[in-house]
Sequence to fold (314 residues):
Amino acid sequence: MKIKILSSLFLVLAVYFSSSAQEKLITRTAKVTFFSSTAMEDFDAENNQVASILMVSDHRVAFNVLLKSFKFDKALMEEHFNEKYVNSDKYPSAKFKGVIPSEVDLKTANTYTNIDVKGEMIFHGVTKPLTVKADIVVNEDKTIVFNSSFKLNLEEYKVEIPSLVKDKIAEDVKVVIVANYK
Amino acid sequence: MKKVKIFLGIGVIIIFLIFSVVYYMYNKPATEVKNEEAFMVISANELVEKFNTDPNTMTSKLLDKIIEVTGKVSIIEDNNGSQIVILGNGVKCEVADLDISLKKDQLVTIKGIYSGFDDMFNELSLTRCVIQ
Fold:
């Protein structure tokens, strides 16, 4: 009898731990790209080592983007981006935290497009509510792909662009996120 | 008359030179880690320990500097062209050309640009890394 209770207790614990282990999906290789496009100049910068956590159980998603890890084609642009525009010494990272709506079933294979992910963005010392559109693919093997694309207005986050280069940097930059959670 | 012509000629050459320098500076490609010398050579765990004891000093000292880190590979994450190798207790290296023979627990030396502390997974981040 005792053995039965013990073994069933063990079974319950085993199931509990194995299921809770899968509740949290992570990636360190999410990709964030931003595009600036004006009549004068187009440029983009890429960050391939964005850390992100997706809590399957409570539908929360969080991204941590180190601004120093953005790579530009031109050294001078990278320097100006870090030193003059986003002050990455003072504000080293940008963060987005959002909630995936409950109609998205993160535990069953399916594809969702144009989902509203409501949350907040912390960037350049400014915290603002932000809702982004996302495409979410839940795979058979429980891995999840999260894609999102949205516009970020630099002025809203107090990023000042000197008038000399105003023609070269867009006020609204397009941000694209691609995350493969395992 | 001749003098004016010479002055004009020199002026044109100077302007041309200035423009070429500006153009070169503007279009200069981003740093190539491979051929640069490391500012600091250290083991992964030692770096993490130093950072934990005094994060502010380490950050101001190391930001944008090339450092060479040796440690045991604890995690390899490979994801559509972007590869991350975690050394020791938390030095995250973004490697462009991942050596596919690299294995967990292997001792390896990686050189990259220090780009800060990732407070989500508590890891120090290196970009543009090359495996030595």
